[in-house]
Design a protein that fits this description.
This protein is α+β, with helices and mostly antiparallel strands. It has one domain. The protein has helices spanning 41-48, 63-66; strands at residues 2-6, 16-20, 32-37, 55-57. The protein has a four-stranded mixed sheet. 31% of the residues are buried. The protein binds zinc ion. Zinc ion binds at residues 19, 23, 25-26, 58, 60-61.
Length: 72
Protein backbone atom coordinates (compact mmCIF):
# COMPACT_ATOMS: atom_id res chain seq x y z
CA UNK A 1 0.00 0.00 0.00
CA UNK A 2 1.19 3.49 -0.79
CA UNK A 3 0.91 6.23 1.79
CA UNK A 4 1.11 10.00 1.94
CA UNK A 5 1.33 12.51 4.77
CA UNK A 6 -0.32 15.91 4.80
CA UNK A 7 2.19 18.78 4.66
CA UNK A 8 -0.22 20.90 6.66
CA UNK A 9 -0.99 20.11 10.27
CA UNK A 10 -4.57 19.41 11.25
CA UNK A 11 -6.52 22.50 12.09
CA UNK A 12 -5.91 23.49 15.69
CA UNK A 13 -3.19 20.87 16.29
CA UNK A 14 0.35 20.23 15.19
CA UNK A 15 -0.41 16.71 13.93
CA UNK A 16 0.16 15.79 10.32
CA UNK A 17 -2.22 13.12 9.10
CA UNK A 18 -1.16 10.00 7.20
CA UNK A 19 -3.45 8.52 4.55
CA UNK A 20 -3.31 5.77 1.99
CA UNK A 21 -3.27 6.94 -1.60
CA UNK A 22 -6.70 5.37 -2.04
CA UNK A 23 -8.32 7.31 0.78
CA UNK A 24 -11.12 9.64 -0.30
CA UNK A 25 -10.22 12.00 2.53
CA UNK A 26 -6.59 12.51 1.61
CA UNK A 27 -5.47 16.10 0.99
CA UNK A 28 -4.85 17.62 -2.43
CA UNK A 29 -1.73 16.34 -4.13
CA UNK A 30 0.18 19.59 -3.68
CA UNK A 31 -0.32 19.27 0.08
CA UNK A 32 0.98 15.69 0.23
CA UNK A 33 4.40 14.25 0.87
CA UNK A 34 4.72 10.86 -0.80
CA UNK A 35 5.76 8.17 1.69
CA UNK A 36 5.81 5.56 -1.07
CA UNK A 37 5.13 1.92 -0.54
CA UNK A 38 4.97 0.75 3.07
CA UNK A 39 4.25 -2.67 4.52
CA UNK A 40 1.83 -1.26 7.07
CA UNK A 41 0.64 2.02 8.55
CA UNK A 42 3.26 1.76 11.28
CA UNK A 43 6.02 1.84 8.71
CA UNK A 44 4.31 4.81 7.06
CA UNK A 45 4.23 6.52 10.42
CA UNK A 46 7.95 5.96 10.95
CA UNK A 47 8.67 7.48 7.54
CA UNK A 48 6.40 10.44 8.20
CA UNK A 49 8.29 11.08 11.43
CA UNK A 50 11.35 11.91 9.37
CA UNK A 51 9.42 14.97 8.21
CA UNK A 52 7.30 15.89 11.22
CA UNK A 53 7.52 15.29 14.97
CA UNK A 54 3.80 14.79 15.40
CA UNK A 55 2.05 12.47 12.99
CA UNK A 56 -1.31 10.83 13.19
CA UNK A 57 -3.19 8.20 11.20
CA UNK A 58 -6.36 8.99 9.35
CA UNK A 59 -9.38 7.68 11.22
CA UNK A 60 -10.75 6.10 8.05
CA UNK A 61 -7.80 4.56 6.23
CA UNK A 62 -5.11 4.22 8.95
CA UNK A 63 -7.04 3.41 12.06
CA UNK A 64 -4.25 1.09 13.29
CA UNK A 65 -2.23 4.21 14.05
CA UNK A 66 -5.11 6.56 14.77
CA UNK A 67 -5.37 5.75 18.47
CA UNK A 68 -1.77 5.06 19.39
CA UNK A 69 -0.18 8.11 17.91
CA UNK A 70 -1.30 10.82 20.30
CA UNK A 71 1.20 10.15 23.07
CA UNK A 72 4.45 8.99 21.49
ZN1 LIG B 1 -7.43 8.63 5.06
Amino acid sequence: MEYIVNKNAQMGTDFHTIHTKECSRKPKEKNCIDLQNCMCPIEAKNRAKQYFNNVSGCKYCCKEIFYKNKKD
